[in-house]
From TrEMBL:
The gene is folD_2. This is Bifunctional protein FolD. NADP(+) binds at residues 165-167, 231. Keywords: Amino-acid biosynthesis, Histidine biosynthesis, Hydrolase, Methionine biosynthesis, Multifunctional enzyme, NADP, One-carbon metabolism, Oxidoreductase, Purine biosynthesis. Catalyzes the oxidation of 5,10-methylenetetrahydrofolate to 5,10-methenyltetrahydrofolate and then the hydrolysis of 5,10-methenyltetrahydrofolate to 10-formyltetrahydrofolate. It comes from Planotetraspora thailandica. GO terms for cellular component: cytosol. Its EC number is 1.5.1.5, 3.5.4.9.
Length: 280
């Protein structure tokens, strides 16, 4: 058996097209949607991601300001800048790139992002609202996982989903989104005893550990659906997920590719959140 490929590209294109329409309407009405990306790192993969957001924003008709504070920025400087952007009526979406400089706590710092502009769900208040069932932007990656499952009509009600990873960017918010869709969710992490026993009992596996090749055939039940969130750079400049696609494809029922799976949907949703924030 070879697993079906759950591409994210068509979904991402549809979200981008709808977003461009909404952006054009907002611009025509005198409110050009604007996204600010705060950067305080010299990290190369972060720089790649920021460029790809800026490119996608431009194509969608969203103004994108890159606010580079440099890798030496202090927590106070970052907080002040996030506060200024939060108070600026011409800015509708704010994202704060990670990593932050050593010693700067990302959760504390993200408290300075206005919740209404928190388009990547980075403020702990947004995560709390999500957990409580109140309106909030979910982190774009977590939402991308659920949107891909829905797009490919994977049933979630009553299904057992194993999430590998408990970060505030992916694992925790995706668990809340899945609970809201009536899945039974198990969240795994680096201290989970016998990861393979847990994941191989699940109907759906969401891999978000940031470890290339972590999920092998022994981690997956025959016919299960596997969503690969990992984006791990390879020495030759490529990109691989957390799933050993070669062995898992022979056992799983369906698998998202890397690249071309969760990544493109993430960027598209970030921009959709920005026009939604501007429309309010
Ligand atoms: N495609 C996209 O749009 C995005 C992709 N990503 C990618 O997703 C991956 C995860 O990102 P992120 O959540 O930010 O990463 P973090 O490093 O913040 O979290 C990783 C999580 O995985 C767990 N983990 C690590 N190793 C193992 C292991 N051997 N077994 C079980 N669990 C393990 C960690 O456990 P513990 O808590 O115990 O340390 C932790 O909870 C990365 O590859 C990242 O690049 C992230 C965001 C967006
Ligand atoms: N708070 C926070 N939010 C994030 O969303 C976040 C983050 N932190 N930290 C870093 C990771 C990384 N990330 C990616 C998003 C899209 C692609 C993407 O679109 N990749 C393409 C192609 C990449 C290639 O081929 O090189 C693809 O998968 O098809 C990749 C990586 C978001 N991240």
């Amino acid at each position: 058996m070879t697993a079906a490929v759950l591409s994210g590209r068509e979904l991402a294109a549809a979200v981008r097209a709808a977003t461009a329409d909404e952006a054009a309407a907002l611009t025509a009405a005198g409110t050009p949607p604007r996204l600010a990306v705060v950067v305080a790192t010299a990290d190369e993969s972060s720089a790649w991601y920021v460029r790809s957001i800026a490119r996608a924003a431009e194509k969608a008709g969203i103004v994108c300001d890159i606010v580079d504070l440099g890798p030496g920025a202090t927590a106070e400087e970052i907080r002040v800048r996030l506060g200024e952007l939060s108070a600026d009526d011409t800015v509708h979406g704010i994202i704060m790139q990670t990593p932050l400089p050593a010693g700067v706590n990302a959760q504390e710092t993200a408290l300075a992002i206005a919740v209404a502009k928190d388009v990547d769900g980075a403020n702990p208040v947004s995560l709390g609202r999500l957990a409580a069932g109140l309106p909030a932007f979910a982190p774009a990656t977590a939402e991308a996982v659920v949107r891909i499952l829905e797009h490919h009509e994977v049933p979630l009600t009553g299904r057992h989903v194993a999430v590998v990873g408990r970060s505030t960017v992916v694992g925790k918010p995706v668990a809340h989104l899945l609970l809201d869709r009536n899945a039974t969710v198990t969240v795994c992490h680096s201290r989970t005893a016998d990861l393979a026993a847990v994941t191989s009992a699940a109907d759906v596996v969401v891999a978000a550990a940031g470890r290339a090749g972590l999920i092998t055939a022994e981690h997956v039940a025959p016919g299960a659906v596997v969503i690969d969130v990992g984006t791990n750079p390879t020495p030759d400049g490529g990109l691989v997920g957390d799933v050993d696609a070669v062995t898992v494809a022979d056992k799983a029922g369906a698998l998202t590719p890397v690249p071309g799976g969760v990544g493109p949907v993430t960027t598209a949703l970030l921009l959709q959140h920005t026009v939604r924030a501007a429309a309010r």
